[in-house]
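Comment thread on ticket #2218

A.B. wrote:
> Attaching the input chain for the structure job we discussed in standup.
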Amino acid sequence: MLLRGDLHIHSTASDGSLSPRQIIMLAKSRGIDTIAISDHNSVDGILEASRAGKKYGVSVIPAVELSSRFNGESIHILGYFRNEKFNNTDFIQILKLVKSHRVHELRKILKGFREHPYYNKFLSSSEAINLLRTFEAAVVLAHPVRISKKNLPRLLNMPFDGIEAKYCRNNDYDTKFFIDLALKKFSFYTGGSDFHANIVNDIKHSNIGEPHLNSTEIRRFLKNSEALVLGSSVKYKNI
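C.D. wrote:
> Ran it. Output below, let me know if you need it in another format.
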């Protein structure tokens, strides 16, 4: 176990085409033994994936991909949970507000959140980071290769725990650059396919495991993020 990991996968709980159980079976067939279900503004697929993962021997890290805005640009932020607060009823309700663009209601609920008058429908990136930290998730900047050059330097100075250094749309230079940056500036890096559908020639995303984290990278991620692992009988306490 812990040999090949894909930490960015979408299911039918958001805009993916496969159920969490089907994702587990596909991951198994492709030699991937560690995954994160990271649906857009939803955690609804995690428990189903966990149950299937236990049956098929695939470890599942509970995660979410929050939608946010920074300086007019859409920015996605990944959260990898350290405990079962992903299943907290308050958090699930908050995600429903984010998903339905009722962020103004969310700001009334969460005291201490800064008001952002220009983001009435979307979380600001700083709010998304704070929200994930409130529910004890390790916070990761998703696919930095897709972020504009004008905004990326400022985002990289925000309090992320890590960045998604290995990504399906990177070239070799991008991957080396972001890995080197992560090792210097952050606690860890992640990597994933951003899988949405099992189709040929998906120009935006790729198939599960393309790219993937190797054993050393998975163990570094788990050690430094303290992310929870579900769905496997393997013990991770002394990694």
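A.B. wrote:
> Thanks. Noting for the ticket: Strands lie at 4-9, 34-37, 59-70, 73-81, 123-124, 137-141, 162-167, 188-192, 213-214.
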